[in-house]
């Protein structure tokens, strides 16, 4: 599939902000096995006083910029064309839980995609007894790592209600788990913690999801969304597999990858600091348009 993507992120401040320094991670990745960035651009208004580009540890292209002068709004727009290919369906060659530690130990690499980075706690995720107990219910004897991951994906989708009002971007995995409500970020954080509690390496994927309108309904402009799903290491032979607990499905050609990380803190699309007081209002609109 070939897609044209557009993203608009806008912020309006109650009082002018100044001394704002931000880092943005919005451009889709080029991945040798599934995705190619054909072209892309990011525009920022007002025009930054300083701007630089760098690649972080997990190989994401990122942009850092500084706005010294007071400004009442910040407008960020991204445009990109991306080719997404179907991934071949492989047989389940993942080990069972008893054999997984040996396969993890056999990986000597500490490159960004090494499973060693995705086993322990991370900035937004620490071990939680309730979620560990929840995970053990899916780790039945004789199941492979992939079977356990699929079972957790299905159970979270069944047990949790998608609710944009239940949590905020700062809510913890335990908050969402207790409520059994939240958004894709919450579903993903709970699933990652559950998998790690079993000794299964798991990480966070940030990206875009093409939404398909119901039959007979017009596609609404700006109705697509930034999305998140889970990356699971299923042993030396199978490697990394991506699952979407919000929709209970493997990531496919409707999923477009922007960034990989341990949790949301590694892949947040916009982070930064500024000088201001009062509140702000934010808007986001995404379009994922198939063109071929």
From TrEMBL:
Signal sequence coordinates: none
SUPFAM superfamilies assigned: Cysteine proteinases
Protein name per its UniProtKB record: Transglutaminase-like putative cysteine protease
PANTHER family linked: BLR2979 PROTEIN, BLR5614 PROTEIN-RELATED
Domain called Transglutaminase-like: residue spans: 176-247
Stored Gene3D superfamilies: 3.10.620.30
């Amino acid at each position: 599939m070939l897609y044209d993507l557009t993203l608009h992120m806008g912020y309006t401040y109650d009082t002018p902000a100044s001394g704002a320094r931000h880092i943005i991670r919005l451009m889709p990745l080029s991945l040798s096995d599934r995705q190619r960035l054909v072209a892309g651009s990011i525009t920022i208004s007002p025009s930054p006083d300083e701007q630089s580009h760098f690649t972080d540890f997990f190989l994401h292209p990122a942009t850092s910029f500084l706005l010294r002068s007071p400004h009442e709004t910040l407008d960020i727009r991204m445009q990109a064309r991306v080719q997404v290919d179907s991934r071949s369906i492989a047989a389940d060659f993942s080990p069972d839980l008893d054999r997984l530690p040996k396969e993890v130990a056999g990986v000597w690499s500490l490159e960004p995609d090494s499973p060693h980075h995705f086993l322990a706690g991370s900035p937004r995720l620490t071990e939680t007894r309730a979620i560990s107990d929840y995970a053990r219910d899916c780790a039945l004897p004789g199941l492979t790592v992939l079977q356990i991951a699929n079972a957790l994906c299905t159970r979270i989708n069944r047990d949790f209600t998608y609710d944009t009002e239940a949590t905020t971007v700062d809510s913890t995995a335990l908050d969402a788990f207790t409520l059994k409500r939240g958004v894709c970020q919450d579903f993903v954080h709970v699933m990652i913690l559950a998998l790690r509690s079993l000794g299964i390496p798991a990480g966070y994927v940030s990206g875009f999801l093409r939404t398909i309108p119901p039959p007979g309904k017009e596609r609404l402009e700006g109705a697509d969304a930034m999305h998140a799903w889970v990356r699971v290491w299923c042993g030396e032979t199978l490697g990394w597999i991506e699952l979407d607990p919000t929709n209970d499905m493997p990531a496919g050609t409707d999923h477009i990858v922007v960034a990989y990380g341990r949790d949301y803190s590694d892949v947040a699309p916009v982070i930064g600091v500024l000088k201001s007081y009062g509140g702000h209002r934010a808007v986001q609109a995404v379009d994922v348009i198939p063109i071929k």
